[in-house]
Amino acid sequence: MKEEKLEKEVKHIEKQIDNLYEKLYEKVPSHFHYRDIINAFVGSLVLGLTFVFKGSLIQISLTLTKAHLAFIVLVTAVILTFQIYFVGYSRVKYKHRRKFGQFWAKRFFTLYFIAILVSLSLVYLFNMDSLAGSLYGVFKIVIAVSMPCAIGAAIPSLLKQY
User: Fold this and answer.
1) Which of 36, 139, 153, 161 is the right S-S partner for 111, CB 3.0 to 4.6 Å?
2) Which long-range contacts (CB under 8 A, 24 or more apart) does 92-97 make?
3) Does any domain span residue 1?
4) Residue 101: inside a domain, yes or no?
5) What domain count does the chain have?
């Protein structure tokens, strides 16, 4: 009876040591939690604010064509995917248990949604929508600002890994 209890405690301690080893030495990424979402909002806001106040942002954004906008979205998606894979997924220990598609989808859609939400908020907060002239102009500005916001949203997970 006493031996079983002692054996159970030893297994529990070994499991805790393994968890610490993974987190501290191997830096295996943890699961995506609400804390990561909050950190992504802060990172997105910080980097987004630096670009919102650039004087030429509105003029450049309003001259973007549909091809430019599509390319900005594509490049943003590629940058986020590289960041998710090389910073996070490459360190997953049991890849057969955590498929890349699921790992990527949770992070990608959350980070990009945060980037769009923050950029839209910044555009309206600083009254850039009145300078845009139309809803399509606002859309162009939001897409232009969403790229640095998305990169900013991904920075906290990058810093967490190092």
Assistant:
1) 153
2) 92/28, 92/29, 93/22, 93/26, 93/28
3) no
4) yes
5) 1
Q: Residue 14 gets which letter from DSSP?
A: H
Task: Tell me the pTM.
Answer: 0.73
Query: Which residues are CB-neighbours of 152 under 8 A, at least 6 positions away?
Result: 43, 44, 45, 46, 47, 48, 115
Q: How far is CA 62 from the centre of its chain?
A: 26
pLDDT digits (tens, 9 = 90+) for 35-58: 778 888 888 888 888 888 877 888
Mind listing the pLDDT tens digit for each residue in 100-117? 777 788 889 989 999 999
110 within domain boundaries = yes
Q: Any idea of the CA torsion for 144, 145, 148, 150, to the nearest 10 degrees? A: -100
Per the structure block, which two tokens stand in for 57? 């942002």
Residue 76 resides in a domain: yes
Q: 52 lies in which domain range?
A: 34-161
Can you tell me which residue has the tokens 């549909």? 66
> DSSP letters along 95-110, please?
TTTS-HHHHHHHHHHH
Within 10 angstroms of residue 103's Cβ, the number of other Cβ atoms is 19
Place of tokens 């986020």: 80
**What is the separation, in whole angstroms, between the first and last Cα of the chain?**
44
